[in-house]
Amino acid sequence: MQSNDKTGRVFLVGAGPGDPGLITVKGVDCIAMADVVVYDYLASPALLAHANPDAEMIYVGKKGGDHTLPQDGINALIVEKARQGNTVARLKGGDPFIFGRGGEEAEVLIAAGIPFEVVPGVTAAIGASAYAGIPLTHRDYTSDVAFVTGHEDPTKSESSVDWKALATGIGTLVFFMGVKNLPTITGNLAANGRPADTPVAVIRWGTTPKQKTVTGTLATIVDETRRAGIKAPAIIIVGGVVNLRKTMRWFENRPLMGRRIVVTRAREQASGLVRQLTEYGAECIQCPTIRVVPPKDWEPADKAIEALDRYDWIVFTSVNGVDFFFRRLIEKGLDVRALGHIKTATIGPATAHRLQARGLKSDIVPESYRAESVVDAFAATPVKGSRILLPRAKEARSVLPVELTRMGATVDEVTVYETRRVEDNAAELIARLEDGTIDMVTFTSSSTVKNFHRLLPPDRVRDLMDGVTVASIGPITSETARDLGLSVTMEAQTYTIPGLIQAILGHQA
């Protein structure tokens, strides 16, 4: 991936104001092609998932008043990495050229003779105001807007802000990085002619599930902000358009807004659940407790694949079973045609859908999404003398093979995947439970429950989980949770991810 030239290149990328969905397509491409990603405090961690696994990731802070690396050090770092022949993505919150010091970094790159590109981003002024329901311009209010720093260079002898012009000449004012100086800002505006009853909004963590908005007037906003505990990062909006928030607020009205929900599902499978919870306003804390991997020994599955002509049925109990079985089928030089004579059964619509995507329509999809329901469905289908292949997880429940054998079938149970414990996030999980900054934990299988439980100190489970809502995908998962001493608050009526989402929304209503 490295440049063949002696000198690499640098992309100054605007990451947007917080919502990872607001980054540009080109911004994502730059992250993906980079050998080195240099990112700051306001760049969403979710964006780092787009990086090449081999890329060097360097955090440089840029948190208000607490820089991990000062700006001169950042400048030197990106020059050094580019001179080594790397493609560097300098990931900056908001837009690089709107109070992002991107201009300074560009000047350093020009002086060093290093090629660079600027990839604009959604600035916090636009993103946070839109998510707060405040249009910065409106034909009934104002046709002009100004972006102003609320934190000027402390080495300057006097302010370069024309407070008189701002106070009386501009309809909407947006101040960046100004929460600490809010009394000075409101005082200067009032002293230079802005009416004391001018509406003001302060928005913290705009466009994220942590977004919090406080409104008031020039005369009251300092006290309102102090009472609400608003700190950086935040922007300040001054002007009549702030009144439109009363009817236009939409982002903070979502049913799960601000709820902090732990997702324990394997990371490669969690995206659907995370996306839906996030769309409803939740802050998702990804803490995968399991990792899905191929089996240590493929021999039993390989023997079954080589003898597919002997089977009458194949039963898939999960999406993972479908994926890993077909992956191995293709690795053995076969495809879906090898299953043309075999009837199929699946547990749940998601598994049936995944099988259909592989070119097979399931012959049996029980109404209830658990092994017992498959057994019930087979009760109306003669299977005596049939040979059934059951590709699934190691250490799966024994209900299916036992009951199908009792019905007269010959069942070959083969392992096509295993679940492994993941403990990488244990320290962060425990710290957040101690701080009371987790509202809910979701469990999508018995294995997620067991491994989550193992992450917690045995003598502290009850204490750490006190007050935390537990959401379960179904009765088997709930039973496992209760057996381990966890109190299940809600259980999905249909044992799917959409069913779990509906249970959570119903509980919140």
From TrEMBL:
Tetrapyrrole biosynthesis uroporphyrinogen III synthase domain: residues covered: 273-502
UniProt KW Transferase keyword: yes
One record GO biological process: methylation
Keyword DNA-binding: no
Biological or metabolic pathway of the protein: Cofactor biosynthesis; adenosylcobalamin biosynthesis; precorrin-2 from uroporphyrinogen III: step 1/1; Porphyrin-containing compound metabolism; siroheme biosynthesis; precorrin-2 from uroporphyrinogen III: step 1/1
EC number(s) recorded for this UniProt protein: 2.1.1.107
PANTHER family from the UniProt entry: S-ADENOSYL-L-METHIONINE-DEPENDENT UROPORPHYRINOGEN III METHYLTRANSFERASE, CHLOROPLASTIC, SIROHEME SYNTHASE-RELATED
Name of the protein in its database record: uroporphyrinogen-III C-methyltransferase
